[in-house]
Design brief:
- By secondary structure, this protein is mainly α.
- Among the domains are: 88 residues, no CATH class; 54 residues, no CATH class.
- The protein has 11 helices and no strands.
- It is flat.
- The termini are far apart.
Amino acid sequence: MKEEDVYETSDLPECEQHIKTEEVFESEHIDSISISPLAAYEVFKAKTLESDQAELGEYFRGYDHKLQVSEESIGEKYNRLRREVDELVKSISSAKESSQSANTAEVLNNEKLTFEEADALQHMLKKLQVEQVIGESSTSVANEQENRLMLITEAFENLKKISPPKKDVKAISQLESRIAQFETLLGVDKKNMQAVLSELNGKSFKEALDELKLQVEMLDTNHLDTIEARLSAICSKISVIKEKKPNLDSEQEKKWDSTCDSLPLIVDRLQSLQVLHEQAVQFSQYLTYLDGVQQDISKSLSNCSTLLTEVQTVFGKNMEVIKENFEAVKRRIAALKNQS
């Protein structure tokens, strides 16, 4: 006989069952420790707590924690002392420079701090030469920020020690000499510099110098003859224009005199034309009025003609009826005469 598989479950529902889950911590600094309840029971078995000696009256708040500070190495101590001595020297110098009052002097005298003593401490630290004694491996244990600062200071010191090449020195000296020549030519006055810069109009100094060079070349002796010939031709043309100018002015004055003489006649004609235009406007208004009256009369005549035609038709019908009635009356009279 094959028996069915039977799985035993707890009486509690699934939502209330105690399911063991392993805690996962994101931080690397937290260690998970597995504690068995049986081992803890064996440790604390047959142990009691005396209420007289235990302080259970107050609530314990927070945690009693202490920082586990590792011992400083020689390199770290050296770096810390050097930094603190530098800060001390700076603070003493700033206090002396900022205020020379009696209060600061009394404070320095009371604390027995002088700039010379701080300087002596700094010289003592420099004479120690800790890096050579300890080596580079121990100094690498210091903080990252201190290492970065040391690297930056060393880089600046190396840059100061490196001497520029001779070519750069020559180029710099040439540039300085050229700048001095420009200053002697243009001057240091701001007005002159603004005048020179205004003539550039966004161009470089090279382009401006090229234009000046062309202008100077135009002033050469070979070009001066052509320039003088052109200037003489221009002067002759200007003299001719000056001679012709009074004649032209007199002709224009004569033309204006004739126009001035004809102006009153033109004004009279314009006034008469204005009157004529006003009369024409009135005549056109009368014509429009007469046209409207004529249209009204034509409409009334058409209505009367239609009425006449209707009256004529009705009158013709009535005449026929009257004639028939007269004939009937005549017949009756004739019949009555015959009966009598």
